[in-house]
PTS system nitrogen-specific IIA component, PtsN (Thioalkalivibrio nitratireducens), 157 residues
Amino acid sequence: MRLADLLTLERVQIEPTVSSKKRALETLGELLAGGADESAAGPPTHLVFDALSARERLGSTGLGHGVAIPHGRMAELDAPRVAILRVDQGVDFDALDHEPVDILIALVVPEASTGDHLELLAQLARALSRPDNIAAMRRAVDPPGLQQAATAAFHDA
């Protein structure tokens, strides 16, 4: 399973008005719950938000360098989903380096998919360990550009 295959344009957003960790997680919940058509619709937004928030309570997923990877497992899912949110002004995410976060890549997986969860997180970590991948995501001017930059980063991971 590859991250690059999971990222759809409907789950990529550049949102200039997000100014808090809670609002960022809510927006990611909306992206991960929604879909372009009825068959893509997922669990209710509040359940996705709850899964992401529960994981954050265990410890921040802010990696540093302005990047966070909120993630969680959900019984209500039948397949993994990934979403990307970029905000204009970084939000306080309790990151390891105490820097604000402006790129959030969220992942939710079915409860029983522990192996997939770990593999997808490893792919994310590899992709985000390269500063040029992060810079490309920051340079994107619209959601299609952000999706293209992220997909290229994920292909290399």
Notes: DSSP finds six helices and six strands in the chain.
